[in-house]
Amino acid sequence: MTVTDAAIDRIRQMIIDGTLRPGDRLPRESDLAERLGLSRSSLREAVRALSLVHVLDVRHGDGTYVSSLDPGLLADAMGFVVDLHRDDTVLHFLEVRRILEPAATAMAATTMSDADAAGLGELLDTLGPEPTVDALVACDLEFHRRIAAGSGNPVLCSLIDGLSGPLQRARIWRGLTQQEATARTLAEHRAIQEAIAGRRPEVARAWATVHIAGLEDWLRRAL
Length: 223
Fold this sequence. Notes:
transcription, 2 domains, elongated, WH_DNA-bd_sf, 74% helix, DNA-binding, Four Helix Bundle (Hemerythrin (Met), subunit A), DNA-binding FadR family transcriptional regulator, mainly alpha, Arc Repressor Mutant, subunit A, DNA-binding transcription factor activity
């Protein structure tokens, strides 16, 4: 473990054990470095690294604070990681999405309000029978975002959001190269929406699995 890694771990432990809480201001750099037995340069590198993943918030002229640690804020870093990976590695992220999203869809079928479930149908109605690829992808992102939010679990929602947005390039690629992709996506979205509105969680889970597995299978064969 490098000195910087050790510094990151010690700050992380202070947050875990409650010494530092969301919104707290870190002690002065010299005081904190002495308290943790670190050089000021190592502490500075640790703070910089933790600010990049939104654990710390550096406010110039004011000090360094622990962020809100909101799951959505922390998930932004995961989305950045997905963006940097090659298409073959994106398959690993799709596999994770295939595990998480059907569970969130089943939860939405029991927790989402009637109005929000109906709103999913209205969202799909805006597309028409032959939408452009860009319109379809934008609707797809919003459709899945609403379902994840409808699960009622903000951590699960943030994880799915972090995985979903950065996979947009694969969605566009599929829409441009696979002729039946648009019709299949529209049909699967409608089946998912109807299962949620009908309060059939296991049916919703099954359709979500089929939907995501289709993109995963296409990308695997395309590569």
